[in-house]
Prior knowledge:
The complex is a heterodimer. Chain A has 10 helices and no strands. By secondary structure, chain A is mainly α. Chain A has a single domain, classed as Heme Oxygenase, Chain A (Up-down Bundle), CATH 1.20.910. In chain A, helix 7 crosses helix 9. Chain B is mostly helical. Chain B has one domain: Heme Oxygenase, Chain A (Up-down Bundle), CATH 1.20.910.10. Helices cover about 70% and strands about 0% of the residues of chain B. Chain B starts with 8 loop residues before the first helix and ends in an 18-residue tail after the last helix. The interface between A and B is medium-sized, with 35 and 31 residues.
Amino acid sequence: MLEPILQDxxxxxxxxxxxxxxxxxxxxxxxxxxxxVWNNVxxxxxxxxxxxxxxxxxxxxxxxxxxxxxxxxxxxxxxxMSTQLLSxxxxxxxxxxxxxxxxxxxxxxxxxxxxxxxxxxxxxxxxKKETELLDDPRAANQGxxxxxxxxxxxxxxxPLSRAGQNYLEEAxxxxxxxxxxxxxxxxxxxxxxxxxxxxxxxxxxxxxxxxDAYALTPEDQEPIxxxxxxxxxxxxxxxxxxxxxxxxxx
Amino acid sequence: xxxxxxxxxxxxxxxVEQSRMEALHTPMDTLLDGALAGKVTEDGLFRVLGRLWTxxxxxxxxxxxxxxxxxxxxxxxxxxxxxxxxxxDDSTHEMQYVDEIxxxxxxxxxxxxxxxDYCKFSETSRVAYYIFSLRALANxxxxxxxxxxxxxAKVIELGWLERLGASYPDPHVRAILxxxxxxxxxxxxxxxxxxxxxxxxxxxxxxASNSCVSTxxxxxxxxxxFSNFALGIPMPEDxxxxxxxxGIE
Lengths: 250, 249
């Protein structure tokens, strides 16, 4: 049984496509593998948000913002996204310059998301200035270094590898944000989540577009599939999201 | 109210002033004079738009390399916020140039623009010389490369954008260039902020100053190619190189 939030996401954003052909067919076939993971992400996010609503203190807000800042704050985002600009070699630029353009935009988006997390910490009174975060290791901790390392290795793999990350993982980001927003009333938390939702959605759609438009041959599909396979391994990031949800259900 | 320390304020002011002097008359002003005199044909305009587009699209590689060299917690977030905006702005400017090439039907498709001689990235061009010199700035820390780029080449770019954006005879080209002024000015201001706050040692100040001088010269060197190419003026000897700053061998 699919969660209504996921069903709505699939109907609105995953299944409709302006393309036909091998890229879209490949994506839709691969998507079948992600649906259980995405469903668990929604379950886990809803469970966690409800727990937070019933919490006796607001530590979860601070911890969530610190985690967000470390994962997609200005420091990490500029490291993570800059590698994507380099994943297209000069001879490939005629074919893939749109990827560089989209990723230039994504650098700016992700860095701004860091400022949303900083807003929580500032307005919540946990810090007085963003520069204080330079002294807090929680704001710079790489919880999943292999995920960020995968991104950094993309320039050495294939220009479309990141499209796989964007499609699978930015969908996770969207589903989490939508789930949280479905139960949270707190204006500060809504600001943190709502303000980045459209941009995360755009990153997901970019992944979708890039697969549909460019992954037309087995050679171009293989590196994307490899990223999907990796992320779905027991130690991969998407599998980890699903495990979180299992724990939440228990 | 807290006062923010600006140990590099004097250096920043000095670099901006030096670059402004260099920006007073650039090869792009020679192009403007030619255009005002009716000497820039549609083909000549294609040549300069092609070169400008090539330069901007190479910036993905420069900025990607520089950004990879900013380590977590090395600088306050301000440095990342400002740099990522600059990266996005220059990406937008890159698209504006190729959009104009396509709008004027100089070529029919973007892929044909890539293949056209006027737009190709050639390793033996002055665009390449300038791009290679920028890539080498990745060897330094972000405060030094931003001093070089934003208080050097960007000040010169701002100067010619303002003048061509106000006076270039073709209204579409004029609008594109005028439209890039505000963002380029913000890059200069950002460079000023970075140098004022984060160039804190004597050695960094000297490196910033030297890098700014050479980046300015290399940028002007590339612009000369743009202007001459558009106006059909033969280039000086290929062996000509910009003068190195004093003290560098």
